[in-house]
Fold histidine kinase.
Amino acid sequence: MSIGSDDPAPGAARWTRWSLRRRVVLAAAAALVVLLGAGVATFAIALDRILLSSAQDAARSQLEQLVGVVSLDPQDPAGTLERASVEGSVVQLLDSHGSVLLSLGHDAADGPMTDRLDVPSGTVVQEQAGAIGPEQDPYALAVTGLVHGGDRQTLLVAVPLDVESMAVTRAVVTLASGALVLLVVLVVGIDRTVHRALRPVTRITAQVREISRALSPHRVSVPPTGDEIAELAVTMNAMLDRLARADAASRRFVADASHELRSPLATLRLQVETSTSGATTLDGPVVHGELLRLQRLVDDLLTLARADDEGLLALPREVDLDDVVEAEARRLAQVWPGALHVHLEPASVHGDAVRLGQALRNLVDNACRHTGGAIAILMQLDGDRVHVHVDNDGPPVPAEDRTRVFDRFVRLDEARVRDAGGSGLGLSIVEAIARAHAGTATTGQGPDGRCRFTMTLPLVPVAAAPPLTPSAAR
């Protein structure tokens, strides 16, 4: 075994392998045993103290009565005491050396029952003595001093505690029996309560085991208790919904990617097969165009894969967004034959300048594909955020499609007719890049009713903020 191993002890490992119900019941039973045991012990001690105090008070009262009787005839204490009633107690008169001068009572001991020979007259000392007399029983003692003819004598009264001891024993046995019955009842009750409480969890576990695929329509039943278990069931259903959506999106993604790849691959295959058979010669521009289309598609897929892995921002830093917008506007002005309107605002954001340029390029390319007229690139400051609008003369995206248009491989019907070669991933990449920069990508219509796509990003605060690290950018 290696030094410093974190393996649990055998007992702890066995405890963790037990079911939750068993652990809860055993822990509750152990706690109840401790509590009930402590309660019985406390009761026994308290009862014993009460009965001992009562016996000591009785011994003291009887001793005071005997002292009063002796005071009537101080010349012969022993003779006076012999005529007195001891009422089931033991009375002893001792001389100054501890010798027994008088011992009365049916359990009278031959020897002295106390060694307290220094108690002054008029003072009573109470104590408990055990294992005295033939029966070796405990006694409650009351001791006082007497003076007879100049000699010091000691008078004591001993009240036997056998009745009290028996009462304590019976009370403890009775209470312990009741505590045992109560323990059994409580443990059974706790076991049933825990079983009833965990029954929904068992049902949820069984239902989840029956769900063998992500697209299964089955869901776990939510108990009507409104407690943590109900919350667990709701959370489990939400997780299953997310898994179903993710699986459906993955299947749709694979199907759409296969569809997009099939067309250029078929064109390339046709070119190769016809050229090999000698029917035609290889059309270089066609092959080159299809290869570029494949490369763009693969690059877009890799970009989205990095976005899914939260690794889209390779070099985040403070970026002058107006410089990025101006550079894209200059490029567009050289290739776009239509009208172009640009409005810049000084704005700095934290992020990756290359990715922001890619997002803006995709928005511009989308505008070029869907209009033959004017294009506008407008920056708008809005508090601590900046909006980059790309407007075109095409009709706005219908309201019901303004969220779906940013999904992968989604192209609206009109776009499928007028599309000039887009893969259907450009707007998804825009949304992923905006999200990686803590921003958003939306679509709607501008004040003049034209189609508008907007990327919104948070501005760098006026006070210099520390640059983002790749982990912080995620």
